[in-house]
């Protein structure tokens, strides 16, 4: 008697791979910002021309890509932006607190970020409100950052239970981005305690030498989030106490009104 192989394993793996390819295509266009020929897309995806062509044809048929001309290749239509804006506008958390985040950005004139811990114990940037200052911190929603070298990560870590903190500490690689990066568990925990006592969590050049940030946690709909003010290190340090006070005031207001 022979056992039949599982018939749905391969299709499931194929579907996941295809979904990842679609996301990769979107990210490639976001990076390149120009029409791409099929051969270029296949090379950037590190995928066979045949499978890449099938994906492109599907996206074209659905209205997400169009052929600019035969020589220059394909480019995304406005459909992708329209769908993304529609989804973002209906975010159950962000739609309620966006005006407060916008106010914080305006009164500090620095970039404001709201984030949350994801399942792989990294900080996920949910929304980024860029500063209107010509020289400012640049980030995009969807980025993931290491907890130990990120002000949001430190703020979010402080909200965890003791058991959750142990799990996270055991999973943090403590990458050294530069000489200012906290080098291990003991230094990291000392920084958390000091941050709670003074009333703000900071990243003073620990991930990028010339970038600084302040953060504070907020509770929204029963879940922990954190908000940060980020910008050039010298501006953050010059306005440290003022920014920290504004951050805590806005965070308290959000928790009470959201």
Description of the structure:
The chain has 258 residues and is α+β, with helices and mostly antiparallel strands. It contains 10 helices and 8 strands. The strands form 2 sheets. Strands 5-4-3-8-7-6 form a 6-stranded antiparallel sheet, with helices on both faces. Strands 1-2 form a two-stranded antiparallel sheet. A hairpin with a 6-residue loop joins β6 and β7 (211-220). The longest helix has 24 residues, at 9-32. The model has no long low-confidence stretch (mean pLDDT 90).
Question: Tags for this entry?
Answer:
258 residues, six-stranded antiparallel beta sheet, 19% strand, alpha+beta, 8 strands, two-stranded antiparallel ribbon
Number of strands: 8
Distance between the termini: 62 Å
- Give the ordered list of helices and strands: HHHEEHHEEEHHHEEEHH
Largest beta sheet: strand ordering: 5-4-3-8-7-6
Structural class: alpha+beta
Q: Specify the number of helices.
A: 10
Q: Tell me the Rg in angstroms.
A: 22 Å
Largest sheet descriptor: 6 strands, antiparallel
The amount of beta strand, in percent, is: 15-25%
Low-pLDDT residue intervals, each spanning 5 or more residues: none
What would the average pLDDT be, to the nearest integer? Answer: 90
- Which term fits the overall shape? globular
Helix content: 40-55%
């Amino acid at each position: 008697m022979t056992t039949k192989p599982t018939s749905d394993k391969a299709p499931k793996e194929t579907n996941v791979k295809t979904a990842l390819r679609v996301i990769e295509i979107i990210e490639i266009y976001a990076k390149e910002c120009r029409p791409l020929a099929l051969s270029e897309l296949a090379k950037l995806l590190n995928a066979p021309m045949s499978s890449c062509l099938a994906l492109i044809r599907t996206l074209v048929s659905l209205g997400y890509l169009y052929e600019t001309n035969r020589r220059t290749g394909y480019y995304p239509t406005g459909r992708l932006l329209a769908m993304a804006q529609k989804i973002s506008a209906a975010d159950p958390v962000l739609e309620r607190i966006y005006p407060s985040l916008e106010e914080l950005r305006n009164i500090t004139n620095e970039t404001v970020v709201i984030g949350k811990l994801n399942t792989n114990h990294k900080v996920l940037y949910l929304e980024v409100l860029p500063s209107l200052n010509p020289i400012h911190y640049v980030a995009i929603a969807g980025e993931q950052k290491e907890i130990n070298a990120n002000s949001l990560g430190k703020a979010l870590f402080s909200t965890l239970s003791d058991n959750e903190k142990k799990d996270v500490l055991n999973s943090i690689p403590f990458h050294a981005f530069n000489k200012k990066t906290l080098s291990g568990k003991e230094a990291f925990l000392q920084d958390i305690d000091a941050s709670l006592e003074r009333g703000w969590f900071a990243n003073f050049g620990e991930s990028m030498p010339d970038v600084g940030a302040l953060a504070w946690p907020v509770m929204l709909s029963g879940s922990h989030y954190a908000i940060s003010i980020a910008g050039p290190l010298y501006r953050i340090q010059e306005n440290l106490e003022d920014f920290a006070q504004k951050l805590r005031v806005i965070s308290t207001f959000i928790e009470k009104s959201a």
